[in-house]
Specification:
171 residues, alpha/beta, 5 strands, Rossmann fold
Length: 171
């Protein structure tokens, strides 16, 4: 399954790791999406900017086929409630994604995406579906995060905007 991952899903490291571990997916993004991720995290300071630069380099190396080239004319031809999100939709179309994974559901109307053969998914729904078939791998990621941060699984998942996954894995 080809899944375009929006920057807002890549920014939280736990969400990013869970999404990339969630089943058999081919992750997709564009340089514009990676730049958006870098800009968002760089606002936190120079150390964070260096860390995110390294994380992006590692993702590019691990998923060398994931980055989709998008041309300005492809972006300009699209219409979304937030024009700044057109590059995300253009990348999904250019990459022949079946799904667009984003927290910003209001910015990607289902009807608009359907005209391009895309389904919009929230990360909570996406990861929960994977957890229902293979929770062990995701739990391993969560246990490592719990040990590293000292935070509970419930707190980690709720803080990552994954309340349904939290309920499923902590009930």
């Amino acid at each position: 399954m080809r899944v375009l991952i929006d920057a807002c899903v890549l920014v939280p490291s736990l969400t990013r790791r869970l999404v990339l571990a969630a089943g058999e997916i081919t992750p997709l993004w564009s340089s514009g999406i990676l730049d958006e991720w870098h800009r968002a995290v760089s606002k936190l300071g120079p150390i964070e900017a260096a860390v995110v630069g390294t994380e992006i380099a590692l993702l590019r190396a691990r998923y060398s086929q994931a980055e989709i080239a998008v041309h300005a004319d492809q972006i300009e031809a699209l219409d979304l409630p937030d024009p700044d999100d057109r590059h995300v939709l253009a990348a999904a179309i250019a990459g022949q994604a079946g799904e667009l994974l984003t927290f910003n559901t209001k910015d990607f109307p289902l009807r608009t995406l359907a005209t391009h053969g895309l389904v919009r998914r929230h990360p909570d729904e996406f990861i929960l579906e994977a957890a229902q078939t293979d929770a062990a791998h995701l739990i391993t990621i969560l246990e490592a995060e719990e040990a590293a941060t000292g935070r509970s699984r419930r707190a980690l998942l709720r803080g990552s905007q994954l309340p349904r996954l939290s309920k499923f894995l902590t009930s």
